[in-house]
Amino acid sequence: MTDYNKNKEQDLDKEFEDIRPYRDHEIRQVLDRIRKHPWIISALRRFVWPRCPNFIVTPFEALIRFYLRLKLYQIHNVDDFHRNFMKKTVLEWIAERTMKELTASRLEDIDPKDRYIFITNHRDIVLDSAFLCYFLMEKGMKTPEIAFGDNLLINEFVSDLIRINKSFLVKRNLPVREQMHESLRLSRYIWYRLNMGSSIWIAQKGGRAKEGDDRTNPSLIKMLYLAQRKSGMSFSDSINALKIIPVAISYEYDPCDQMKAKEVYKSRTQIKYEKRHREDLISILKGINEYKGRVHYSFGYPPLHGNWEDAKHVASEIDRFIHANYRLWPTNYMAYDMFFSTNKYKEHYTEEEVKVFLKRFEKLHEEIKKVAIEIYAKPVINREATG
In whole angstroms, what is the distance from residue 56 CA to residue 346 CA? Predict the structure, then answer.
């Protein structure tokens, strides 16, 4: 990077200081805070040895502290942290322990020297973006910056973990006028990072698709255009310049399926659904730690390019790709047949697979079980609608 670009980056980083990720010159201090925090020690101990006997907890946690200190001492910048800690120590461990298979398609077509906006469906709070980063690192690319809702910042420790992982904050639940101002600022930040050569990951809408229905919010597309609207750049030229790559993420089993089914059921039958205390944190931990079966990422390439009428037109094209390229698993096909009381897709699953699937929901109320099955059936419904 030239001295001019370095100075420009430093000046703009000051403007976005409250939402931007940590930079290389800040990482040492942040890592020291993280490695000393009791939450990280306890979490690593529970993940590595969940049934650790009580009398071994203290010496085992001391060993974790020593390991963490040695591992993080070797980290000198953000990319080091991603490649040598997150990828090799965390993500590979999660994949080996909780996934039967982790695959990607069309990844080989992406130019590692270019930058993009990756827009994906959203099923898991943390892992959707984390394993997209994993695949890009496998390809030798730098990891993208990650859009992350500030409603998930429980405390300073969680904020450190999020921002050291190249996440920039999306401010939620603001009054209308403040939200408009923040949307413009967020758009300006995204364009600034793209112009500096960084890729961006952002979910197709705020919040996970709890009903299994992957739909892009046109407001997201409008936000991306905001920073260019006054510059004279047309809407189509702006969208084409973003180099949007849609990505369909498909989980065979959703670790949070029961929680999502209960939330959807309650939201349909009650005036207002009230989240439990730290429910998002529980979802994050379940998503990381529990079995997911097979997981697949379908990358759309080349990036979106065309004559775009409006934000809805762009959103529908992203949806079309995700619905057509979502990898359907036996769980999806059997759920469709159960939900519609048919045998249409019976060749895609076995009776044994049906038993394993239904066992997940045997303790649920019958109406909530129907919602869970509907959630798994939705990707098949969407695939059929693409023709």
Answer: 49
Distances in Å between the Cα of 356 and the Cα atoms of 201, 259, 316, 329, 353 are: 34, 18, 35, 14, 5
Give 246: exposed, middle or buried? Use CB within 10 Å, 0-12, 13-18, 19+.
Answer: buried
Angle at 95 between CA 112 and CA 84, to 5 degrees: 55
Residue with the two structure tokens 């004559």:
307
Contact assessment for residue 251 and residue 293, using Cβ atoms and an 8 Å cutoff: yes
Token code pair at residue 74: 């070797």
Give the integer Cα–Cα distance in Å for 387 and 385. Answer: 5
Residue 359 has pLDDT above 70, yes or no: yes
| Residue 238 CA: distances (Å) to CA of 232, 243, 318 | 10, 9, 16
Asked whether 169 and 150 are in contact (CB, 8 A), the reply is: yes
pLDDT per position as a tens digit, 259-288? 999 999 998 997 566 777 678 888 998 999
Q: Which two tokens stand for residue 356?
A: 């394993």
CATH for the 1-24+78-252+291-319 domain, from 3.30.460, 3.90.70, 3.40.50, 3.40.1130: 3.40.1130
Answer whether the bond into residue 50 is a cis peptide, omega within 30°.
no
Closest residue by Cα to residue 170 from 21, 354, 44: 21
The pTM of the full predicted model, rounded to 2 decimals, is 0.93
Domain ranges of the chain: 1-24+78-252+291-319, 37-76, 254-282+328-387
Using the predicted structure, report yes or no on whether residue 4 has a pLDDT greater than 60.
Answer: no
Q: How far apart are CA 149 and CA 245, in angstroms?
A: 21
Cα separation values, 367 from 78, 256, 261, 272, 372, Å: 47, 17, 9, 18, 9
Buried b (16+ CB within 10 A) or exposed e, 287-324: bbeeebbbbbbbbbeebbeeebeebebbbebbbbbbbb
Residue 15 neighbours by CB distance under 10 Å: 13
